[in-house]
Every structure is written in C-alpha cells, then in structure tokens.
From TrEMBL:
Record-given protein name: Antitoxin
InterPro entries: Antitoxin_Phd/YefM, YefM-like_sf
Organism: Clostridium putrefaciens
Any Pfam family the entry gives: PhdYeFM_antitox
Record function comment: Antitoxin component of a type II toxin-antitoxin (TA) system.
Source taxon at top rank: Bacteria
Family note: Belongs to the phD/YefM antitoxin family.
C-alpha cells in the first residue's frame, strides 16, 4: 500500500518516515504543492532493488549470448 506524505513531513516527521521505511520495507512518496516529487526508501531496500536490477541484467546478457550461440562448454 502506498504511503503519500507532504514535503513538510520530511522536516517535521523525519524519524516517523524513516521508521516506516525500515519497518515495512516500502517507499514513502513525497508530494510538493500537491504533486508527486520524491520517493524515499531505506538504504537496505534500495540496495536490494539495485541488486535485482544487476541480476536481471546479467540474466538478460546470458539469454542473449545463448540466442547468439556465444556459449562455452561446461567442461
């Protein structure tokens, strides 16, 4: 479930936003003048997300290599 907070909450309720991100491992969306502006996530969640992207990239490279017959024998 998305959590949306105004930008003033970053200044006034930073600890609450930080605790939420760490506890639920979900982002908090920050609005500015009623429009979406930022997404705040914990470093742990960010690193996990980046790790997934890196894995997907490597898997995609492997699939591409297989399709182009650029593979090496297992032995």
């Amino acid at each position: 479930m998305s959590t949306i907070r105004p930008s003033s909450d970053l200044r006034n309720n930073y600890s609450e936003i930080s605790a939420f991100c760490h506890k639920y491992k979900e982002p908090v969306y920050i609005t500015k003048n009623g429009h979406g502006d930022l997404e705040v996530i914990s470093i742990e969640t960010y690193e996990k997300l980046v790790g997934k992207f890196e894995l997907y990239k490597l898997l995609d490279e492997g699939v591409d290599a297989m399709q182009k017959k650029k593979v090496r024998p297992f032995k």
